[in-house]
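Z., the sequence and structure:
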Amino acid sequence: MVTGSMTEDKSEAKDLNIIKLKKGETVNISKALGSNKRLAILRILSESEFNLSEIAQKIDSTPQAVYHHLQILEKSKLIYVVREESIKNMAKTIKYYRASYQPDSINLLLWAPLDELETTELEERVPIPERPVQRIVRKMADKVFKDVNDFKIELLTTVVKDMIDLTHHSMNTLKDDYGLEVDEKLWNLMLLFSNLSVLNSAKKMAEDGEYRSKVNDLLSLLYEEIEDM
């Protein structure tokens, strides 16, 4: 019989779009994501918390095999123990796990091997959906504007989204113009990375004072041009 919770969940799931890796973690994460079973576990734990037995049942595996996968994922900091529950009359606890990073449609795509993805899945995820853009723009807004409000956030989101969509369109145009023969799934993955690159660049320009100063100078010049018209 299971009794009350012993530990509390002290941290929210992080955003996988903004992972900050420490030295040496890359290899661990590469290994952790190199298994279809572990990918399945990550997807399950991104939705809710489960213990070892529940995970084994959901992915149709044995508790022994799942325990091995959980160890790798935990060492790679991709999952963490949310809480532990004690078993009555036993010096033993049941651990409940949760994904450390909250995957959106972009991250699910990045995690999954190409041969597991249907072309329709890729098409649905490219270009980048609104939600990840809005989330990152909200983190940029206080660095771009002195006084943040919903209108300014909406405007900045529109500009960044337009940049991404134009990149997406430009890439497809170049593919057609040069007659590139690229596997559709691979091409969509390339589009995704180019779109993410634009999003990261916009975020960098907002965070870095040197870049932000140049953008402000450009905006000032544009404003002067409009006033003189």
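The chain has two domains: 2-103, 107-228. The CA atoms of residues 23 and 29 lie 12 Å apart.

Let me know what you think.
H.
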